[in-house]
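Before relying on records like the one below, remember that each one covers exactly one chain. Contacts with other chains, cofactors or solvent are not represented anywhere in the record.
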Amino acid sequence: MRIRTEHLGLRELADRAGLTVADTGRVDAVLLGGSGAWDHARALRAGGHTVPLVVLTDGAPALDRARLEPVVLLRELDAGALREALRMCAVGRPAGRVRLASGTADLDLGRFERVDGTREPLSSLECRFVGYLAARTGRAASRDELQLQVWDHRRPVATRAVDMLVARLRRKIEEDPRHPTALLTASGGYRLLVDTGSPQISDSPALVGRDALVRDLRTALDDHGALLLVGPPGVGKTAVARALVGDGRPATWIDLSADDAEARLATVGPGLLVLDGVEARADLWEAVLHGPPRALLGTSRFVVGSSAIRRVPPLDAAAAEQLLRREAERMGIGLTAARTAEVLEPLDGLPRAIHRMAERLRTLGGDAAGPGAVLAGDIASSWTRLEPGMQTLLASLATVAGPFDAGVAMVVAPQTDAFDWVGLVDAQLVEPDGERFGLLQAVRSYARSALPEVWEAALQHHLVWVHGEVVGLARRLRRRGARQLVARLAAREEDLQRAWSTALDGPDEVRLPDLAVALDRLEGPRDARRRRLEEALDVLEDPVARARVGVLAARLDRHRDRAASRASLVACAEALWDAAPGEAVRAAVEAARLAANLEPWATTRTWLQGLPVERLDPTSRKVLQVRLWELEELEGLRRTDDVLRDMMVLADDLAELGDLEGAVDAGLVVAPRLQLTGLGDPVAHMDRVVAWAREIDRGPLLANTLVHLASRLGEVRRTDEALQALDEAAALFRPAEPLRLWQVTQYRGFVLANGGRHREARRALEDYLGWCRGRNARFGVADALLWLAALELDADAPHRAEALARQVADVVPESAHLVLHARMYEAHARLALGDVEGARALVAPIATDGGYGYEQAEIALLRRALGESQDERIAAIGAAMSGSIGETLRALHAGVDIPPGMLTARILARLWALGSG
């Protein structure tokens, strides 16, 4: 048990009681004592701390004890008694209103409100009793415990006080006191059943209905270490953040919109750092995020940086209604159901807007009829007090679907001058926050109807502005800084969707392709993206525009039908050569990659070399060169070592030119070959590639690089790190490219196999094999069979390895490179079973040179096991290679201990042992 206390004397008592005193991190309770214990408890609760408080005292409890729950009172510090008391506590204080089956107990107002609207007063002792049991979420509390904790008796006494109070309470809170449904008798005591079907009201208006959200976010903060809460103005991000830090951990709170934010940040100490209003200083958030690791929590109106993102949604209908009714009742205002629905409808579920509207209802008289009793009347009244120029500006701002600021206002309403923003409209309806506003949907609707002609003209200005932002994105998609631009567009997603719908109705063939690129970059569900692209292709007539949208559609469907996607990409590339050669190159390169298993490599290479590349810019030429060199290496026209050296330089060149996507593409070609050739550190190389992908900040692309990083980590037996990378990749694939989750399964099998975890690896690879067979993915089936065969060789199961390797030739053409590996694994199995002649028949047709270093090594070791002299050749291959394969070959030749190595290296070591035997 971990506790925290700031009193030196209590620390000594805690140490003697065998308790662990912690100054940082999560704690189970906070220990208080002395004359100021209750004041300290109130300060903790006011600051949002929700952990149980242990008060060591002989005095009477505080009168507001129920509002400070969960609280444990102890006369002396005994570890056993404390553990038992804390076991009965639920982490979290009781709500201000506790909902039961027959009504709601309001602990603030001291009354019970029945479902039929009648009320019963509750005494302070009854409130304390209900609060204590509610904080224990249905767990039983004994009569002795209730005497000590609610009545504050110094020791249990023989009394009927508890039972008498229960009898009185049941008459107030139960429909039938003789058959209670909420306050139940338990063994030796009582328990309270709280109705969890509706949100429980918390102290802060922004926390109504947020209990589950806060619990989930607290877990996410512990898991990720850095968490950014994102949501619109007035949704309660700051209040939720305060609830998150209320768990006993030391925290420093800095408002980044304050003038001294940077100076305070420079002197911050250890513990959780909370940065409120990150959008005001995104640079400071980025600096802290990429600095020394620390617990970090931020709030922002839009996505910033690469931390874990969690959105704070508006309140649902039930929570919004509860909040409005509570706030109205505090002001003595009664609301009918119809009036409640009318008031809530335009408030967008924003807690701040609901709270301000409740204040306004006080001046309107609740349900009283008359001028201004309807929200639209209030808006109209405010509207008439505005200058004509302000009315025009407000109508222009109503074109914006998402949040807006002064900069957006000057773009969508260029005819206006700088206005007094605070006086733009009645502050009771639109709340200014610096230069930013939370504009209620009702005001937008009224502005459109009040000045329809102005609104239509402003909408056109607005669409031009959105398209200008999109064009900037299209030009910089593969450049440094694209992540920040995508973040800005993510905040404008509603505006992009409106622009898309307007362009479709046109159709606007100028804007649609750029809008398609932007919306596709924001990802989202695959089916929704596919439908949007199909809508565009239905209305587009211009062949160039159709080709640009067609490229996106082909990329989206490449896992569904490789041949159809390749044919579509080829057609798009040919249509784009004159208008957009850079886009044409990328479509051609993607088509060539899809053709890898559909036609001979030479055919694809010849087609790429025949493309009209004379007018290509340097970046596009390098992108094309990556694929050409890869094909030449696969055909044996260029040495692998030479290609990799050139490709690494090319990747750096593309990164310097700002084409990070091209750099990632080249880096992924290089990565799997480094371990096999010994030209560099594959993990360090992939770390750079992942960094480029993070800067691009596109989910599936980053996920793909993480998968390859995991493979490289698995090769050097950093299994846990590899599995973490795969988990992150799966989280990125799941919302946008769920089909590619099987890629994660495939590589999970590779990683586990390299780590020697045979049972887990076999299960993952068999899942991958089944998926490939179900989709008739022949080369995927062959790949899975080979890995399973290698796994069985490593597990000393040659019979199963041979059976798996033999299946490969039945799946892919005899000329496929994978068949070579199958023959070698089959020969290995034959040797392990003592069938030397069978192994010799398999090895004899295999050429002795060519291929990667590990292939040459495997061939040499097979021939050595068959009695041929190969020691010098094996020594030469080992000298030329680094990584675990090179280390293994050198160790084998020198007769020293063999390093564990990856799976391939372990197979080579088994072959050496067969030859030595």
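The CA atoms of residues 208 and 582 lie 52 Å apart.
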